[in-house]
Hints:
The chain is 35% helix and 21% strand. By secondary structure, it is of the alpha/beta class. The protein has one domain (2-196): P-loop containing nucleotide triphosphate hydrolases (Rossmann fold), CATH 3.40.50.
Amino acid sequence: MQVCIAGCHTNVGKTYASAMLCASLGYDYFKIIQAGIPKDCEIITSFAPHSKIYPEGYVLQTPASPHIGKKIEKANYNAKEITIPQSQNLIIETAGGLYSPIDEKYCMIDFISHHHLKTLLVGGYYLGSINHILLSIEALKNRNMQLMGLIMSGEQNKDFDNFISEYAKVKILHLPFFDKSNFETIKKDFKQALDIIF
């Protein structure tokens, strides 16, 4: 299965969620577009060393919205021409939120829709996140895109989870912050919880 990991906002934990999914499921990894260095694939390699890492669709050195980095670097690419690797089991990570631009014409959600990708949305616990998450879910539903579930990253707040779950009728997985010291413990619990989605 090819699964897209999309965010409700930037810096909500998409790469760590991708790393955990790759490690738990044995999936390969592909980043649509990398904006800034170091590369996100380094985190994947650190936690899921057995996963195959495909080259990014495009790499920009500028740590900014890709359409800005593209202009600064005079890069030549088209979002619709970025090809997805032919891997049977693949985690595809976006950059930023659903409406973060890939180029001058298209956003991440356009890429996901164009390729008919099943999607896991990643959200976090911060002021305003419920709004960002619900707007993202609504955007996916309005395009009849398949939302598999929501991964909430960070220290769990059940009030957040309960409201989102009841309001949007979405399955929620909780992914605590992790590093090398607690990775295996978190992975064991997360892998068991994946049964509600996979």
